[in-house]
Amino acid sequence: MSSFPSFVERIVQQTDGSRAEHEDLYEELLVHLEDMKEDKMSNGKSEKEAEEEAMSEFGKESVLGDQIQQAKFPFRREMFLGFVFGSFLWMCALFVHVVVVEQMAVYSLFTIFIGQIAVLVLSLNQRFVLKRKQWMNMALLLHLLLFILFGLTGLYTQATSFHVLFYVMILLNIALIYLTTLSYNGSSKEVKTRRYFHSMQLTTGFTIAAINVFIGFGAMIFVGLNIILLNYVLPIVVWALSYVLQAKFLKRTKRAMVVSSVVTFFVFLFGTLPVASLWLPFVPMEIAQFFWPFRPSM
Fold first, then answer.
1. pTM here?
2. I need a surface site. Which of 95, 221, 235, 287 has the fewest CB within 10 A?
C-alpha cells in the first residue's frame, strides 16, 4: 500500500483553506509524487525504494506545509511574532512599573508567558505535523484567557497607558483568532458559507464570554470562589459545545446554515438573558429562568 496519501495529508493539514482547496492541493501534491515515483522506477528502482526516495527528496511534511502556508498567506507569521513581542513587552513593563511605583511584585503576571510561548512555538513550528489552524486558535485562546485573568489582576496602577494597551492587546488577540479561523483563499459558495458560519459563532461566543466574564469577575469580588460563579461559566461551555457540534453538522448537509442560525440565536439568549435579568428591570425573571434555571436568587 502506498505511503503517499498519508504523507500528502500531513502536508495539507499544515495549511489553511476550504475543503475544496485542500482537495486540490492534495491532488496536486499526490500527482507530483507519483510522477517522481514513476521516474525512479523507470531507472530500475523497486516500488518501495522509489516511494521512499520520492518522499525524501520532496522534503519533510511539517516544513513543506509551513512553506505552502507562508506562500498562501505572506506576513502571517510576522503578525503573530509582533503580537507576541507586544504582549511580552506590556507584561514586563507593567511588572517593572508596579514594582517601582506601587512597591509590589506581581509575579502572577508572568503566567501570561505560557500563552506567549504557545503562540510563538506554533508560529515558528517546522518540526511537528499538526492541524495548524486548530492548534493556533487554541494557543491564541489560551493567551487571551491568561492575559485577561492575570493581566487584569495585575493592573495595580493608575497609569492610563497600561489600561489602554491592555484592551488594545485583547482586541488584537481576538482579531488574530478571527483572522486564523476565516483564512480561506477564493470566494466560492462553500468559502462564503464557512466564513459566515465561523463569524457568527465567534461573535456570539465572544459576546457571551465578555458579558459573563465581566459580571462573573465582579461577583467574585463580593462572594469569592463560590459555586454560583459556575452560572457564569455554564453559558460559555454551552456555546463551545454548540460550536463544535454545529461545525460537524455543517460538514454533512448544505442546509445546515438555517438550523445553525436558529440554534446560535437560542445559545445567544441563553448566554445573555440571565445576566440581563439581574441588571435590566424590563427583562422578565421568568424568561431568564427558562434559559438559566440555576440563576442565583437576588
1. 0.76
2. 221
